[in-house]
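ok trying again, last paste got cut off:
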Amino acid sequence: MQHKTLAPIPTGLTLSALMLAPAIGAEAPSAVADPADPPRPADNKLQKVTVEGQREAELSSVKQTKPLLDTPQTALVIPAALMRDQAATNLVQVLKNSPGISMQAGEGGSGGAPGDSLSIRGFNARKDIFVDGVRDFGSYSRDPFNLEQVEMIKGPSSAFGGRGSTGGLINLVTKQPQKENLMAATAGGGSGAYRRLTLDFNQWLGATESGGAGLLNDAALRVNAMAFEADTPGRDHVRNQRSGIAPSLTLGLGTPDQLSIALFHLKQDNMPDFGIPFVPLANNNVAAVAGYGNKIAPVPFSNFYGLLNRDHEFISTHIGSLNYRHEFGNGMVLRDHAQYGSTYRDSIISAPRFSSATSANINHELQTLDEKDTSWINQTDLTLKLQSGSVTQTLVMGAEFGYETSGNYARGAYNPGTSPATVAPLAAAAFPTTDLFHPDATQAYVYSVLRTGAYAYVAAHSQAVYLFDTVDFDPRWSLTAGLRWDRFHADAKAISTTFTGNVLSRLGRTDSMLSWRGSLAYKPSEKSNLYLSAGSSFNPSAEALTLANAANSANSSNLSPEKSRAIELGGKWEIGEKLLLSAALFRIDKTNARTEDPANPNDFITLNGKQRMQGLELGAVGRLDKDWSMSTGYAYLRGKILSSANPLEVGQPLSSAPRQSASLWIGRAGASPWSFSGGLTHVGSRVVNTTNTRQIGGYTTVDAMAAYRVSGHFTLRLNAYNLGDKPHVLDMYNTGSSGHVIPGPGRSVALHGEFSY
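nice, full thing came through this time. structure:
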């Protein structure tokens, strides 16, 4: 077999606007996949990838049949080439290119929710992350080594992805086998004990021995692998270590019948981090922290309040998928995508909590997760293209079936020689404390952390059918409409245990919802598009696979789903063939938000609250001239609680939603072997809780990159992060009088060598 020599990996921003950080509302000319759809097979335009990471500007979703300019929705893409240029190693770093998305967790820190946790337009989206169009329910930090692109669809999107998706959703598109022979590898080292290795290998197998048609005609194999470890810059003792491998095989590549098989495995061993404590208001008069009530403790952001001989985070994630596509001809295509995923998480984390209202000492409060999440999901859809005179119509109809489970075992601390069968777990007061200003992570911890016997298990069955119709009346006017009906049934089983006995409880709830989305678009010219779109979403009690029988629980089995609706007015313009501009005004209303009166301990949570988020998103992305490229985005969010059973919440802003955020990435790359790029990320101040008693300040960080092409096959790239070493808060968690913030990483540098052949 002839081995094809591929072009070298380009550096800087030489890949055109495709490599740039996407703008809001209109994006770099790259693909936007619908998270509810299976990935397109490897021979289509989305997956037509060279080793440089370039690909044609093509939408990947079968439900969104328009190119980006004509897509009537805020949707944006971050391609693999930009992730490589920025040397991104986690989803937090990838999504900082997108204003309007707030990360609520990061590597080494889990906040109040484990794994990648984020809000989109002010609404929690922790369970709205998809892999190749299938909901990825696991709680873990994701590494982009196997990603072709990361896609964001904003606004209520239950019509696309089912439950959740109030502010939007994230879809991670994995790399697929190609009709190329390629090998690309990177090796890097840097400050903070940073080390990283990656491999991307693709082998075009050509025609099989049978030489026949169909699945056995052509095949390709692709393998991606990664090993990584690093300390967190600016944080004492916090480290992350992981390895992963992702093989995939496509049969019948380029034929009417294609079958793709893909596997994914990611293993992590981290020292987790719950950061710096808030000072409770009750401690406001303690001399050491006087005046800091409801504020972040006045300590260095490097302080670590964990226990090195107790705390750990072990995570194992597996994903397997089977994707089949058949082309009947005349625009009729049948697809079926089946995917299994599982994540096991064993973590023990110290939550920094003040030991008393009269002390500045900190408890190493035990926080533990012993949890396994699984999902089996199958999606089938049929696409039809119809023509009648000047009217063109694209119909997509399909069905989705899913089975998801979540099992969580409770654990507690016990004195040596005792067991859950004989005694109750120790209270927090029994654990060692440490000084707020000089914490000791090496303190002895002689207790045993054991399962108490209590556990919770939830199994959810889901069924959905959907229909999308895109009608082009003429070259100027088009109409898109979509409907999705979901049935979501959850069964919960819980064992409450003490050393005197066990109590078994069972719960169940079934919700059926119809979600919709529609848009009307008008093209004043070939290179412009104006649109008006609207959509809905729903949030059932068991959305995150938790269910409770307490009437004052947010996931009470007595509560119907929350409902949201949105409207968006936007426009996109191409200037020449180089620059894409966008603007969008939007409003999201949660019409029946969960609410409770905290002054009444017997008050049930009801669905009488109302919340509103409205704002503006702007973007510009493309080439300024033959050497300079730029991408910039800006988001202005104004959220408010319109009504609530808690009078202290009424009129307050929504939490975790910075009023202003922005990103910029600009670079120069010409004929010289040198290329340079850099940019900034700005996040405004945020409200921590719904009563607006705690806030965290905004920040701006600056990153930069310089690369030198040594030869046609080898490039050196130097990345610098947070050049100003700006202290900032990435994550926050608030609960009653307690809480903590997780600092973002400090200044660091990394040097990578890239080899391609």
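cool. The longest helix spans residues 80-85. Residues 16-756 form a domain with the Maltoporin; Chain A fold (CATH 2.40.170.20).
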